[in-house]
């Protein structure tokens, strides 16, 4: 309607003034309801064409949308594993600090794993003590084996010397028996030394490695025990939290509730039409009015334009996707941030809004090689943005009336 009124001032009104003051035709006599089209056909036709052109120009280069939401983030409350709730520490709509416990699952299995790991560590410590004692005993066995070997070696050397002096005194068989006894004592000595080395290796490497593995198992069991207590990752308000002791919580099926963080605000997320994909660019100036804060125009800036349309996403499933299932057109997701700090204060998170984005050709208008027609065209584009700004302010005025009176909400 506003565009039609503006265009009629440039088309129908001049046509009427020409008919009235040049041709002398007057309303009610020469120009009436039945002859209006014939008398003002040029002005009406030009008005319709100009109005349609103006509306197309405005809505293309200065897009508007009602698909705007003051988005905010939430944190899902759920454990990392399935379990039965043993204790609940908070209630619904209760404010919690970062790291505060929210609920605890039954931890009997985790406590048993911790106790098993502790017993294993104690067992390895006992094995270390026993191995140290065995190492001391191994020194005694080595000394005993050395003495026996030296004695056997002396006896063998004595028999060999006697045999060399008089072969008839010592039999050859006796020398061989002494040699076998000396070799056996030497083997016993080597076995005792090897046993000591085994004990030293066990004390220095094997038992510490086993203890480290047991300590790692204890640490893992402690981590699993800590997971049974679900804590707030950030400070905020607990919402939709109806969990009670005895309930089963499954992270794949059922969450425990929702935590709305203190730093929950993301900004305004708007969905513009796909036809404006070539116009919407980061850095564009925008304006919005929200139903949660009526009679207020919020200046914004486009910070990000999503380069994909969510309606066309495809993910791996067990069924082939028919394009007909994606026939509903999606919108161009755009992120809007306030120009100045605190301008979104007072707007409830999740509030619905109306937003306009404005194309600016300031840099191109100041280009040295721009043509006159191009300069005029870009000036027209920037100027008609004023019409859309006026429409947004009218919507801001009528939004409470439309919401409270016309729709009954």
TrEMBL record:
InterPro entries linked to this entry: MFP_Efflux_Pump
Transmembrane segments: 40-61
Annotated keywords: Membrane, Transmembrane, Transmembrane helix
Protein name as annotated: Biotin/lipoyl-binding protein
Species this chain originates from: Rhizobium fredii (Sinorhizobium fredii)
Phylogenetic lineage: Bacteria, Pseudomonadati, Pseudomonadota, Alphaproteobacteria, Hyphomicrobiales
């Amino acid at each position: 309607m506003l565009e039609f009124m503006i265009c009629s001032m440039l088309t129908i009104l001049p046509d009427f003034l020409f008919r009235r003051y040049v041709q002398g035709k007057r309303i009610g006599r020469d120009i009436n309801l039945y002859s209006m089209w014939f008398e003002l056909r040029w002005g009406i036709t030009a008005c319709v064409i100009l109005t349609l052109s103006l509306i197309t120009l405005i809505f293309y280069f200065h897009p508007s949308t009602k698909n705007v939401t003051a988005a905010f983030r939430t944190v899902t409350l759920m454990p990392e594993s399935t379990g039965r709730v043993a204790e609940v520490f908070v209630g619904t709509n209760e404010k919690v600090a970062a790291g505060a416990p929210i609920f605890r699952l039954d931890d009997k299995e985790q406590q048993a794993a911790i106790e098993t790991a502790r017993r294993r560590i104690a067992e390895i410590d006992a094995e270390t003590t026993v191995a140290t004692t065995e190492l001391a005993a191994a020194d005694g066995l080595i000394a005993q084996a050395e003495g026996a070997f030296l004695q056997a070696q002396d006896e063998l050397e004595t028999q060999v010397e006697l045999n060399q002096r008089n072969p008839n005194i010592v039999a050859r068989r006796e020398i061989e028996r002494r040699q076998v006894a000396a070799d056996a004592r030497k083997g016993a000595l080597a076995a005792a030394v090897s046993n000591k080395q085994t004990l030293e290796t066990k004390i220095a490497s094997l038992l510490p490695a086993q203890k480290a593995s047991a300590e790692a198992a204890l640490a893992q069991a402690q981590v699993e025990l800590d997971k049974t207590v679900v804590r707030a990752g950030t400070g905020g308000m607990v919402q939709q939290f109806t969990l009670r002791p005895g309930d089963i919580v499954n992270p794949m099926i059922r969450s425990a509730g929702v935590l709305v963080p203190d730093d929950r605000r993301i900004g305004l997320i708007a969905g513009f039409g796909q036809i404006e994909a070539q116009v919407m660019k980061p850095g564009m100036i925008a304006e919005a009015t929200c139903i949660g804060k009526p009679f207020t125009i919020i200046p914004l800036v486009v910070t990000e334009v999503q380069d994909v349309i969510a309606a066309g996403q495809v993910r791996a499933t067990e069924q082939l996707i028919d394009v007909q299932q994606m026939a509903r057109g999606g919108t161009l997701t755009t992120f809007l941030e306030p120009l100045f700090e605190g301008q979104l204060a007072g707007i409830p998170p999740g509030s619905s809004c109306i937003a306009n984005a404005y194309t600016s050709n300031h840099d191109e208008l100041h280009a040295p090689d721009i043509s006159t027609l191009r300069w005029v065209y870009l000036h027209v584009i920037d100027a008609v943005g004023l019409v859309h700004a006026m429409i947004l302010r009218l919507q801001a005025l009528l939004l409470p009336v439309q919401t409270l009176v016309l729709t009954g909400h």
